[in-house]
Amino acid sequence: MRGSRKALAGGLLAAAALIVAACGGSDAASDEAVTEDTAAAVAGGTETIRIARNNWSASAVETEIVKLLIEQQLGNPVEIVDIDENAMFAGISAGDLDANVEVWPSGVTPDEQAFIDDGSILSAGELGSIGKIGWFVPDYVLEQFPELATSWEALKDPAVAEAFATAATGKKGRFLGMDPSFSQYDEGIIATLGLPFEVQFSGSEAATQAEIATLAADKTPLIMYYWTPSGAVGKYGLKNIALPAPTVDCAADAANCDGDYPEDVLFKIVSAKLKDKDAAVHAFFEKFTITTEDQLTFLTQVDIDGMSPADAAAEWVKNNEAVWSAWFS
User: Fold this and answer.
1) Beta strand 263-271 with 99-103: parallel, antiparallel or unpaired?
2) What is the pLDDT of residues 11-31, one digit of tens each?
């Protein structure tokens, strides 16, 4: 959402080959021309649809919603493929994956944009949600350092930075990153703005949430990479620290990023091969939408109440038939 992804297209295409193997690929029989006798069966929703799922809660719930609706309404079996953003674009371009329903524009690298530009990946339209990645602190940090409520420049103060330090960072403050494959420019921002901080990665959204819970117990200062909408923002009272507007394209030049993350109008992507594979599924992805309000509802269930993404998806489908039924009319 989120990766300062520098992989070359060739490396991405190699990853696509691994996806084929992981998903079982296609045997010789399936590569043969479809006869008139079998065409009706294919059109009837027998093709397996492979959805890319990324490592954050909203993606987990949304792919489960898609799976439920495609299987129940169109009859296609659906396989959810857990994959990071580095390999996802190559897999969708090759047709080994059919779609992803939550792409953050700020994280699309030039190599990935090339797949959209050459027509092998198609935009399926806006998702309906607005996202914002950024630097967040628990609300108690603003009580301890009220100057941060009005200006990021307070982070330049070595005494302020040291309050965020850990044994591993010495006198430098720790900036808690998340999964290093996510779209993140924090090391560049820290270096370019001259801040006495060091990035350390938690490894995942769940690990960051666990760290917040631990440190919040005794109000230990914490500054981190996070985003909204997110159930954790409400649960832990996270506040976004506004950074200056960047003067460079941070997605293309993360090492020299000197400002804030942009607001992201989230969108969906599908393989250009999907329409021929199953036109009804292709049409469904174009109609599928999830609003920011929807996300806040099910992210609260998952991130705060501990509900599984599959159960949260089933709850959303149960309560929103008036919304999703229109996608199949």
Assistant:
1) antiparallel
2) 333 344 444 334 443 343 333
